[in-house]
Amino acid sequence: MSREAGRPQAPAVPSLEAKFGLPVEVRFCSRCVISNQRPSSAVEYQHTAASRKETIHFDDAGVCAACRFAEMKDSQVDWAERERELVDLLGRHRRRDGRYDVLVPGSGGKDSIYAAHLLRYKYGMHPLTVTWAPHIYTEVGWRNFQAWIHSGFTNFLCTPDGRVHRTLTRLAFENLLHPFQPFIFGQKAFAPKFAALHDIPLVVYGENEVEYGNPIAEAATPRRDLRYFAGSADFDQLYLGGVHAPELPKHGVQLWELEPYLPADPTLLRDKKIEVHYLGYYLKWVPQECYYYAVEHAGFEANTERTEGTYSKYNSIDDRMDGLHYFTTFIKFGLGRASYDAAQEIRNHHLTREEGVALVRRFDGEVPRKWLQENLDYMGITEVRFWELVDQFRSPHLWKREGDRWILRHQVS
Questions:
Q1: What is the mean pLDDT of each run of 10 residues along the chain (413 residues)?
Q2: Which among 334, 17, 60, 320 has a CA at the least distance from the CA of 183?
Q3: Dihedrals phi, psi of 137, to nearest 5 degrees
Q4: Residue 15: per-residue pLDDT
Q5: What does the alpha-carbon distance between residue 171 and residue 178 come to, in Å, rounded to a whole number?
Q6: Helices marked H in 103-202 — which ranges?
Q7: CB 51 within 8 A of CB 19
Q8: Which residues have CB under 8 Å from 222's CB, separation 6+?
Q9: Which residue ranges form the domains of the chain, and what is each CATH number?
Q10: Sign of CA dihedral 394, 397, 398, 399
């Protein structure tokens, strides 16, 4: 399958090597549509062109870890007991002196609206919300962000230095085919750092990444693993945009300008007793239910049209870079936005596998043309250079060329 007609002819594939440490044998989950090429969350500060990816686990029955976790949620978790644990956690942190007692990071999407609104209006907490700005806001994303605030929340919006952010985005694209990396730095580290700065001891995110394929062992605790957002700020140990931090001044970024992107100080977090939890550990997380809740309680808007690369209208719609991000996962791992959406909806019993397969084969890999030129201008990359870089990151064990088109060797069925 390819949706890239009309682009320059691709070079021949020299061999069937598997890049990025991906499994050479491609397998698809027998329950959903995800493949064993799906990468687990990485420690972005160590991400280089030579990094090897850890990928989703498949058991002997051919079922992926995310599907097994969904099965556990349906049959093995006592959700009433989990909610009692949540009530106890919140009771220990609730303040009665007029100060904020929980920090909720988010963009004003369905998940952050759901989390913040529940914590305030159902559980009686006093949330402060914080946002690490998208690369380029969409109109609907900005309206939803405002709706979130006007449903009863104070918000601190951190918008990093635009020149630095564009440079790191370009470097991440050129070196890692990962234009979303600068956003992920802030998405994971900004809230804990802000909580420590303002002495708010509890940070609550939405769902755990185990929902989508991270190792199930990470679901045994409600707390986010420190390694994703905290660590040494020693520049000699850090990589940003795939570049060793001390080398970034050669690219026009001074080291002092990197402060917003640096990991949180684990010693400071321990000293201030900052805890980072997932609400999805305590309450059964169903993205569609979050959407309905956000519509009802904050006037959340879905897109008026299908999102490029998939069939949905309400997931990840606040950043004009989202479509490019998912397109790069399609290039590197053979999994595009429709694969991620359909897999999640199959696990939540909203689609059959047969329906998911049809949606993936129809929409996965669609080039995000709507904002592509704006994305390229943002990074300072020409479209010719864009396609050169894209083709460099195709793994031969996933892709083959037929005429002037690239074709995936393996498709879900």
A1: 43 69 97 97 93 96 96 96 98 96 96 97 98 97 97 98 98 98 96 96 94 89 91 95 98 97 96 96 96 96 94 92 97 97 96 98 96 98 98 97 94 96
A2: 320
A3: -60, 140
A4: 53
A5: 9
A6: 110-117, 139-150, 162-176, 181-197
A7: no
A8: 85, 89, 277, 278, 281, 282
A9: 75-282 (3.40.50)
A10: positive
H helices present in 236-336, as ranges = 266-271, 279-282, 287-298, 322-333
Q: What does the block give as tokens for 332?
A: 């590197």
For residue 39, the SS3 value is strand
Residue of 412, 409, 315, 290 whose CA lies nearest to 356: 412
Residue 308 backbone phi and psi in degrees, to 5: -55, 135
Beta-strand (E) ranges in 52-181?
A: 102-105, 127-132, 155-158
For residue 203, what are its two tokens?
């940070």
Residue of 343, 348, 345, 279 whose CA lies nearest to 79: 279
Model pTM above 0.90: yes
The amino acid at 196:
A
Alpha-carbon Rg for the chain in angstroms: 21
Residue 40 amino acid letter? S
CA distance 292 to 296: 6
Dihedral-angle region of residue 13 (phi above 0 means left; psi in -120 to 50 means alpha; beta otherwise):
beta
What's residue 9's pLDDT?
42
Q: Which residue has the tokens 């956690």?
A: 89
Report yes or no: 66 and 211 within 8 Å, Cβ to Cβ.
yes
Q: Closest Cα partner for 9 from 384, 372, 395?
A: 384
pLDDT for residue 216:
87
